[in-house]
Structures are given as structure tokens and as C-alpha cells.
Amino acid sequence: MASRAVSGYLLCAVALVFLVLLQGTQSVYIQYQGFQVQLKSVKKLNDLVGQWVPSPGLQDQSPQPSVCHHPALPLDLRPICASKDAASIFQGLRTIANDDCELCVNVACTGCS
């Protein structure tokens, strides 16, 4: 009886791990200007752009878009900040994300259904 309970718990644990891994592989990605980022990161970018107001001195000192200095900027977006075209890349990503990327309307989107 105890071995049956352990077997049931083990089966549940394996199923849970499988579901977590499967969920991670179901991410929607956007490929744009040589960068591949997750759609959820671009949605986070939209939120950050709307709420982030950097200090005026920071804007004058840095050629990077101000959102590059936000501590909550997703990790997969950070390499874009090193590009000289970072501002236009961020704008392009935000536009693509708003174009029903989850429905694969835009060819830059992969992993959607």
C-alpha cells in the first residue's frame, strides 16, 4: 500500500515537472534586427516605458534609451541597449508586439499558435 502511494506521488511529480518544462517551451519569440526576445519581455518593456522617468542628468549623459537604465528591464532585452539603433529596435519590437503576435499575424513572431 505504501509503495502504491509513493508511486502515485512520483507520477504526480514527474507530470508537474513535465508541465513546467512544456510551459517554458511554449514561449512566443520575436526575431527582429538580429535579436530574439520573448513576447512577454516586450510586454514588460511596454509597461516600463510607460512608468519609467529617469533623472534629467541621466538622459543627457547616455546615448542609450532611458529604459536601458531601468533595473527591471528583462535580461533578453539588455543586449539591445548596446546597439547604436537601440531606440528604433525597441520601438519596432513594441509595434510588433501590439500586432497580435500571439496569433502569428506578424512573420517576426515564432512559437505562437
From TrEMBL:
* A GO term from the CC aspect: extracellular region
Among the Pfam families in the record, one is Guanylin
Name the InterPro entries for this protein: Guanylin (IPR000879), Guanylin_sf (IPR036382)
Q: Has keyword Disulfide bond?
A: yes
Record keywords = Disulfide bond, Secreted, Signal
Residues spanning the signal sequence: 1-27
Subcellular location(s) of the protein? Secreted
User: Cystine bridges: which residues?
Assistant: 68-81, 101-109, 104-112
Is GTP-binding included in the keywords of this UniProt record?
no
Q: One GO MF term, please? A: guanylate cyclase activator activity
Tell me the protein family, please: Belongs to the guanylin family.
Protein role: Endogenous activator of intestinal guanylate cyclase. It stimulates this enzyme through the same receptor binding region as the heat-stable enterotoxins. May be a potent physiological regulator of intestinal fluid and electrolyte transport. May be an autocrine/paracrine regulator of intestinal salt and water transport.
State what protein this is by name: Guanylate cyclase activator 2B
Please tell me the species this chain comes from: Odocoileus virginianus (White-tailed deer)
